[in-house]
């Protein structure tokens, strides 16, 4: 079964279990676009009584947490040499992982600290891999899960909002059309949300520093 057939199956069988499973896959080291899952599910929830847009976000975030924990524990247990050996392997390349991407995720983690597991969830090409440096560094589990849940929740909310807006402001009739349109705009919107989040955090830190002076 090729990727097109998998996408088609997901789009035709969207429910909470499918959302959770494939968002867990998306958040692990297996490449799978979240745009195939959340926007179409949110769009479908507008007319399907079996789906609720808020529960779509919750189950998508739960799935993202599961996938992130897989990466976190694999990195923590296997260590850096094996992680990079996997990134250099043919299987790693099939999973769209290579040394450069892992190094990029590690650099992002070093530059932004523990909070990168929040901000990184909004950055394409970093979102799926940010759990690896967190595991390699031995980041505290409670902090990792908190930041991952918040970041994934924000990203999934953005995708769900896309699905909602597509339903109300377009005449698209199929989940596949929704997926295609959501893919076109999700990255740009994600960067806008990331920028706003960093500004808000910066303001909070600035106020805290001024208060302590």
Provide structural commentary.
The chain has about 210 residues and is an all-alpha fold. It is built from eleven helices and no strands. It has helices at about 5-10, 15-25, 40-45, 55-80, 80-90, 90-95, 100-110, 115-120, 130-135, 140-170, 175-210. The chain is globular and about 50 Å long. The model has no long low-confidence stretch (mean pLDDT about 85).
What are the salient characteristics of this protein?
single chain
What's this entry about, in short?
The chain is 76% helix and 0% strand.
Order of helices and strands: HHHHHHHHHHH
| Helical residue percent band | over 70%
The total beta strand count reads 0
Mean pLDDT: 85
Radius of gyration, in angstroms, nearest whole number:
18 Å
Shape: globular
Note the main sheet: none
Strand content: under 5%
Uncertain regions spanning at least 5 consecutive residues: none
Distance N to C terminus:
62 Å
Number of H/I helices: 11
Write the layout of secondary structure elements.
Elements: H1 3-12, H2 16-27, H3 38-45, H4 53-78, H5 80-88, H6 90-94, H7 99-112, H8 116-119, H9 131-137, H10 141-169, H11 175-212
Helix pairs in contact: 2-4, 3-4, 3-10, 3-11, 4-5, 4-9, 4-10, 10-11
């Amino acid at each position: 079964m090729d990727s097109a057939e998998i996408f088609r199956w997901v789009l035709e069988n969207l429910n909470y279990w499918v959302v959770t499973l494939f968002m867990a896959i998306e958040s692990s080291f297996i490449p799978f676009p979240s745009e195939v899952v959340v926007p179409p599910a949110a769009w479908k929830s507008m007319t399907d009584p079996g789906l609720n847009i808020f529960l779509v976000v919750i189950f998508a975030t739960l799935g993202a947490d599961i996938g992130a924990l897989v990466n976190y524990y694999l990195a923590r247990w296997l260590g850096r040499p094996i992680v990079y050996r996997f990134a250099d392997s043919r299987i790693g390349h099939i999973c769209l992982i290579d040394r450069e991407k892992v190094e990029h995720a590690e650099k992002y983690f070093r530059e932004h600290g523990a909070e990168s597991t929040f901000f990184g969830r909004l950055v394409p090409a970093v979102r799926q891999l940010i759990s690896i440096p967190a595991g390699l560094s031995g980041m505290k589990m409670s902090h990792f899960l908190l930041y991952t849940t918040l970041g994934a929740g924000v990203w999934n909310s953005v995708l769900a909002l896309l699905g909602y807006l597509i339903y109300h402001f377009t005449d698209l009739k199929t989940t596949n059309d929704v997926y295609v349109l959501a893919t076109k705009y999700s990255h740009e919107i994600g960067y806008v949300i990331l920028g706003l989040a960093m500004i808000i955090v910066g303001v909070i830190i600035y106020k805290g520093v001024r208060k302590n002076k």
